[in-house]
Amino acid sequence: MSNETAEASPTRSGPPRWLRPLGARLVFLLVVFLAFESLLTPLLTAAARNPVTGILAGVAAAATALYAYAKLVSWLEERDTPEISRATARPQLIRGTLIGVGLFCLTLALMFVSNAYRLHGGSFGDMIGTFGLMLGVAVIEELLFRGVLFRIVEERWGSTIALIVSGVLFGGLHLLNPDATVWGALAVAIEGGLLAGAAYAATRTLWLPIGIHLGWNFAESGIFGATVSGADTTVGGLFTGTPHGPAILSGGEFGPEASIWAVLIGGVAAYLLVRKARKRGNWR
């Protein structure tokens, strides 16, 4: 066969010139995924009131966000997206979810010891619906804050600046919640933002931070019925719970994430993951 009849291999179509600079790419992706969060979170919350629709909505929202991330990043950066590779999805997601559940259970155990939390009866159906809600939220927020913000800031200024910037903005977003406080937002920045950023840096996959985020939020609200980050949108869990005693121990109306115990547990876990990232040569 002659060269004239050979088919040319397909080439990936790149973005327009104005989207190629790092800053433009960052802003564009932030706007897209902030829009995803703004549009999908109310729908997820409404769907979570029924266990079946809650699970279906959570899976659909997660799949949509992951598909959008893969397509947009591949187009903008002209590369594949190994950070959400299917090969690492199952083990890292399971591992992260178990870590998240374990860290919150340890936090709650310390709250029980300090007489800062009381449990009452709840609903199995509410637990299932809340799992769907938290699945969608975890995927969307981790794509936004770690897949976009942390990763692109790190590309220019390194891992330390990326960890601080993504953590602070992640905590700051929670100031929009109804019962938000400055201390609560700072606590979330440490135990959530730094922890998830360190998890991404240690593994270079988004599945571990997604799993940790999902496991923590699901245990917090879906199992133990606590308020998550000052938000009043969750439908409940297997149990219902009420804070008791000083807010520094119980978290008060913001929920357990504003407890000093949560900050200590999340902060120590983040430190250990940063150490692992450095040991593996993943700290840039």
Automatic annotation (TrEMBL):
Pfam families associated with the record: Rce1-like
Coiled-coil ranges from the UniProt annotation: none
Protein name: CAAX amino protease
Ranges that cross the membrane: 22-40, 52-72, 93-112, 124-145, 157-176, 182-202, 214-238, 258-274
A biological process term (GO) from this entry: proteolysis
Organism, as annotated: Actinoplanes cyaneus
Keywords, in A-Z order: Hydrolase, Membrane, Protease, Transmembrane, Transmembrane helix
Residues annotated as domain CAAX prenyl protease 2/Lysostaphin resistance protein A-like: 128-218
UniProt-recorded Gene Ontology molecular function terms: endopeptidase activity
